Amino acid sequence: MRYCIMIISLLFSAAALAQKPVKNIELKQLAKNYYVCVSYGYPPDSDEPYPANSLVVVTDKGIILVNTPWGEEQTQQLVDTVKSRFNKKIIFCVATHFHDDCVAGFNVLKKQGAKTYSSKQTYALAKKENNELPQYTFARDTTFNIGGEILKTYYPGAGHTRDNIVVWLPQAHVLFGGCLVKSLEADTKGFTGDADLKHWPRAIKNVAYKFAGAQYVIPGHLGWQGGTKQLRHTLKVVNAPN
Fold first, then answer.
1. What is the pTM of this model?
2. Which domain holds residue 201?
3. How confident is the model at residue 47 (pLDDT cuts 50, 70, 90)?
4. Which of 205, 215, 138 is nearest to 175 (CA)?
5. For residue 119, which of 101, 134, 138, 104 has the smallest C-alpha distance?
6. Phi, psi at residue 109, to the nearest 5°?
7. Which of 7, 39, 93, 187 has the fewest CB atoms within 10 Å around its CB?
8. Which residue has the higher pLDDT, 140 or 15?
């Protein structure tokens, strides 16, 4: 019995050591009523936290969110933060693809009354991976009017994933590019396990043509300085041989 207790104790100790700390989110203002929420996760085979971006829009009716933070704990942090800072609840969230850095907070949002959306393709891929699922789906490019704020989804073709979409907010000329778009800080393609490297350049060209007037372009990870320069940079990165 002593040995059983010792083994169990060692297993619990190993599990505790294997747990990676959850960082606090950061909320950074982009423009009036528009914020970027930076959360942190751990890519495969990495012990260092890596930033992911969500877009937060404050309206009279409540908070709009594009992509959940990277996990349930950080999503709850955002729920608490916007309640404290703006005295508002998150009422709407749309995910740009099926990975955890976009959907891992859906269940938290649903519990507090938010409506959660993705494309049908994203829903199917998330379900296949046992990731969290939205309540509602759309089959084609869709326009939402939430609290007077217009959001337009656009599928440019496969790239970082087969299902990746971008979200355009025309009132502030904000383009949320998600993981289809690389930050100027990024010099590699990042995780490509679900990517379509052949069609990614075409998808970026489609986005660059359609949203040439974007003032702000938010990539899925790292900084968002540079506006549409990030689209040209992404094309360079995805065309590189590495």
1. 0.91
2. 22-239
3. confident
4. 215
5. 138
6. -65, -40
7. 7
8. 140
